[in-house]
Amino acid sequence: MENYLVAMAVFAGIYALLALGLNVVWGMTGMINLGLVGFFALGAYVSALLCKRAGVPMVVGLVAAAVLTAGAGAVMALTTARLRGDYLAIITLGFSEVVRLVASNELWLTNGTDGISGIPGPWRGRVTPAAFNVLYLGIVAVAVALIFVLCQRIRHSAYGRVLRAIRDDDQVAAVAGKHVIAFKVQAFAVSAAILGVAGALWGHYTSYIAPEVFVPLVTIYVVLALTAGGTGSNAGAVLGAVLVVFFMEATRFATGWISALAPVQVAALREALIGASLLLVLRVRPRGLVPERIVAVPEPR
């Protein structure tokens, strides 16, 4: 039971990273990104391939995942710089599907649908599984803390105020002399880098990645986590991620005793219960559990 709880805490931490990454581009900048699972997958594959085939340390794999996904995010932002709303959502969703299809078909690189197994983890095989879980939880907790502090610094800085101005009305921000496209590209790159690190940490923990892991449902869960926690709030992103993982696992136990339903029906019931639980949370707290608070900037004398 202890190993299970530690593993769920690791997954909650990884979901918290995904929610923080989404909060940068959506909560702060107002750009809809439904393709975050694509950057999540890209980071996982980059780090897994480098560490397993090239034999580089895990830290190098994490840095490479962050850099390459940031580059992909910048290219995506430049491509969609003048799109907004539904059009941006469709393009980003298409990007995630392209990444998944490439991973499924490029056998020479990703091993196709068989996936990549045996991804090295820190001290895996040299310590007991229980010790490895606790050790990795510490690594994920440090990563969440560092990225949370980074996102908080962004949010409370002048740069973050420009991002929120773009979110509220990018034309007004442009009239005020801000290079809107440049800020959007930077925000998308920072967000993608965080998502890439989350993917790399996922791969090193599970030691196996395959295209069917990176489905759009992951994006939906992260969007729900940020919405329930509080869009624009970094603390809300972390809390929402923990809440979603809790609901995901609680419904597993809640439906485990139902023997009259087929496994597919039980899975559908779980999804319905997760959605109903989150709807209840939003009914009680429409702005999220930890809504964004805008601190007024004092006027210069």
Give a structural overview:
With 301 residues, this protein is an all-alpha fold. The protein has one domain. It contains twelve helices and two strands, in the order H-H-H-H-H-E-H-H-H-H-E-H-H-H. It has a two-stranded antiparallel ribbon. Helix 1 packs across helix 11, helix 6 crosses helix 7 and helix 10 packs across helix 11.
Q: Helices and strands in order, then pairings?
A:
Blueprint: H1 2-28, H2 36-54, H3 58-79, H4 86-105, H5 107-110, E1 116-117, H6 129-156, H7 158-168, H8 170-175, H9 180-206, E2 208-209, H10 216-229, H11 234-254, H12 263-284
Antiparallel strand pairs: 1-2
Tags for this model:
301 residues; mainly alpha; two-stranded antiparallel ribbon; 2 strands; globular
Quick structural overview:
With 301 residues, the chain is mainly α. It has twelve helices and two strands.
How are the strands of the largest sheet arranged?
A: 1-2
Mean pLDDT: 90
Portion in strands: under 5%
How many domains?
Answer: 1
| Helix-strand string | HHHHHEHHHHEHHH
Question: Between the first and last Cα atoms, what is the distance in angstroms?
Answer: 60 Å
